[in-house]
Hints:
By secondary structure, this protein is α/β, with parallel strands linked by helices. It has two domains: 6-182, Flavin prenyltransferase-like (Rossmann fold, 3-Layer(aba) Sandwich), CATH 3.40.50; 191-399, CoaB-like (Rossmann fold, 3-Layer(aba) Sandwich). The chain contains 13 helices and 22 strands. The strands form six sheets. It has an eight-stranded mixed β-sheet with strand order 13-12-9-14-17-18-20-21, sandwiched between helices. Strands 3-2-1-4-5-6 form a six-stranded parallel β-sheet, with helices on both faces. It is elongated.
Amino acid sequence: MLGGKNILLGITGGIAAYKTTFLVRLLIKAGATVKIVLTESASSFVSPLTLATLSKNPVLTSFEDKKEDSTDWNNHVELGLWADVMIIAPATANTLSKMANGICDNLLLATYLSAKCPVFFAPAMDLDMYKHPSTKASFEALQSFENIMIPATSGELASGLHGEGRMAEPEDIIAFVNQYLSAGLPLSGKNVMITAGPTYEAIDPVRFIGNHSSGRMGFELAKEAARLGADVILISGPSHMHIDHESITLVKVVSGSEMYAAAHEHYAKADIVICAAAVADYRPKTVADQKIKKASDDLSIDLVKNKDILLSLGKQKKNQFLVGFALETENEIDNAIGKLKKKHLDAIVLNSLNDEGAGFSTSTNKITFIDKNSHIKAFDLKSKEAVAVDILAEITSRINA
Ligand code: CTP
């Protein structure tokens, strides 16, 4: 959810400010761009240099740009509008009270008042301050302004006392924000399983039978499903593609048998399954223990059929929306519909090898989406990223219908 988002982090003066270094790291790791506004007192608890280094952006504390001879100023309005999400953590009783009352005597408060995005605040203070009626009144006022509170937790406090008032841990702040942002997305709460890439079928310890699938289509589908709010299990054969997204779990496999086992392991929990892998249809009957020597002029390798993962999933289907791919060269629509029926699919994505730019080793694809009611929709040649958007739009419109 946070990938590609502009996150404005406001840090106020409490001991929990030291934990924001971890929060910044997690935000950056999630793919967010982070800018930080620090109150003067917060800089006693955490160094602006540390935060600037971690966030890769200058840290702002005052309206004036402190660089020598600079006539620039830090524009709170621009900052507020730049942010997709603002997080104030730790939020002290003092800052919360000022926010609740529209007081605007520092850059952080002015930026808060200028922000149009969702604003999260994670209070941190001693237990009696947390319980105080004036603090509770601040919480209520801020929530009535549609700011979102990330409640403090209980535990040992800096004062040595035990109770409520510890700032939520950075991981929990991230999870909280993610959950909020994903609620309302079309695939929020859904589990999506995707197979991708080629499979390698070993001949001996150094050789295999494989194919030219790049895995790109499956990886793009995984990214798009995650962008729509899903939790994704991406089962991929050997591929050079990389993925780093907190809602995507990459399960790496090599052979068709490994992919079969992984797909069946995760199937029961899945709401949507898309089999985009180019699974080898056959594998060597036996795998030589040692490297095969070139002893004779001819070499024959006996092959046996790999189990069809999609067919097996189709036979066990309960509530899953199951989608397959078909790569055809002739009678494309009829063959694809035949596969859809044989494998008990809800939909099939047809690629025709007759279409230039379509197929599995290109960065583009041209698809026809066919559902089990024989509704057929042909799309133009597009990047695989754009094709993934089309495929998931077709799927979500059917499961949310
Ligand atoms: N598939 C699979 N497991 C296999 C073979 C294929 O899960 N062992 C899946 C692919 O991921 C794809 C679909 O089945 O979603 C279509 O596979 P394809 O090879 O086009 O069709 P087949 O049914 O194998 O028929 P043929 O190769 O004869 O066209």
